[in-house]
Automatic annotation (TrEMBL):
This is Zinc-binding dehydrogenase. Residues 10-323 form the Enoyl reductase (ER) domain. InterPro entries: ADH-like_C (IPR013149), ADH-like_N (IPR013154), ER (IPR020843), GroES-like_sf (IPR011032), NAD(P)-bd_dom_sf (IPR036291), Zinc_ADH-like (IPR052711).
Length: 327
């Protein structure tokens, strides 16, 4: 099979198209002939060596295609070995493409519990772009964040794949969704998905702007922080509000004023991708609330994986970037 392979850690140029052995059969696993593979920021961290993936390595977490043994169109949940406890993943949990060869390839092998039917109305690109950001946003908002209709949510960073998914889900439920962004254009695009409004997060007073824009004028019920700006995020909450954190691209270590935290009665809730049970609940939610397919910003061929990574790192787009696989 052909695959985009990294033989060293580094920039986008370390990705190159190569011939690789087809996946070997494994009990409890199935092989998928991929039609599309979606990029995530997690893939960039894999490429840079953050997770010390084995080399040479095929990255890629998200994908959609056809299951070889049944011919069924499927999409892949890249959450491997979650375990029996729903509160948090077990010790064997990993993300597809970290240590197990991923979806930047014509073929990929995954546990059968991680394969789900493609939703009606989704093409291969949309199905490939749905699982990681979809289940991550769903778990952040509902499983962990306990969001209910009528509450207000601020999502930091409107341009990535996660924020559009979170905005669409929260708006579908009946929550008031707000975003931060680096551009007015991305805020406007978030409005088309159901966001009420947004603020520019490079403004020195953006926290005050956000609190003023909140429905109560005293802050949000929930803030979803996928970048690692805890101090500002906590300041955007109403008293008793919930901060859901799931990323650290801006800062990996956080300093929190303890008195501010406990007098404010805040919660800081950690979350990560999600379990097969979370994903099954997401699919039911998507059907019940007629959730629109993910926003596809741009597609590249598998042979142009390096160019796709460069585009992702430039951070100018809105929505998902997808590789098409012509097997």
């Amino acid at each position: 099979m052909e695959a985009a392979v990294m033989r060293e850690y580094g920039g986008p140029s370390v990705l190159g198209l190569e011939q690789r052995p087809d996946p070997a059969p494994r009990t409890g696993w199935a092989t998928v002939r991929l039609q599309a593979s979606a990029l995530n920021w997690h893939d960039v961290l894999v490429r840079r060596g953050t997770y010390k993936s084995p080399l040479p390595h095929v990255p890629g977490a998200d994908g959609a295609g056809v299951r070889l043994d049944t011919g069924e169109p499927v999409m892949i949940l890249p959450s491997l070995g979650w375990g029996h406890r729903q509160a948090a993943p077990g010790p064997d949990w990993q993300i597809l493409g970290d240590f197990t060869p991923g979806t930047y390839a014509e073929l990929v092998s995954v546990p059968e519990e991680c394969l789900f039917p493609r939703p009606g109305g989704y093409d291969a690109l949309q199905a490939a772009a749905f699982p990681l950001v979809g289940v991550t946003a769903y778990r952040a908002l509902f499983t962990r964040g306990r969001l209910t209709a009528g509450e207000s949510v601020l999502v930091l960073g409107a341009g990535g794949g996660l924020a559009p998914a979170a905005v669409a889900m929260g708006a579908a439920l009946g929550a008031s969704m707000f975003v931060t962004s680096s551009s007015e254009d991305k805020i406007q695009r978030a409005r088309t998905l159901g966001a009420v409004d947004g603020v520019l997060h490079f403004a020195p007073d953006w926290v005050e702007q956000a609190r003023t824009a909140s429905p109560s004028g005293e802050g949000f019920d929930v803030v979803v922080d996928a970048v690692g700006r805890w101090q500002e995020s906590l300041a955007c909450l109403r008293p008793g509000g919930r901060l859901v954190v799931l990323g650290a691209s801006a800062k990996t270590e956080q300093l929190v004023d303890a008195r501010q935290f406990y007098f404010g009665q805040y919660e800081i809730i950690g979350t990560t991708m999600g379990s097969p049970a979370d994903f099954a609940s997401l699919l039911a939610f998507a059907n019940d609330y007629r959730l629109p397919p993910p926003v596809i910003e741009r597609s590249f061929s598998l042979s142009d994986a390096a160019e796709a990574h460069a585009w992702l790192e430039a951070g100018q787009g809105f929505g998902k970037i997808v590789l098409t696989v012509d097997a």
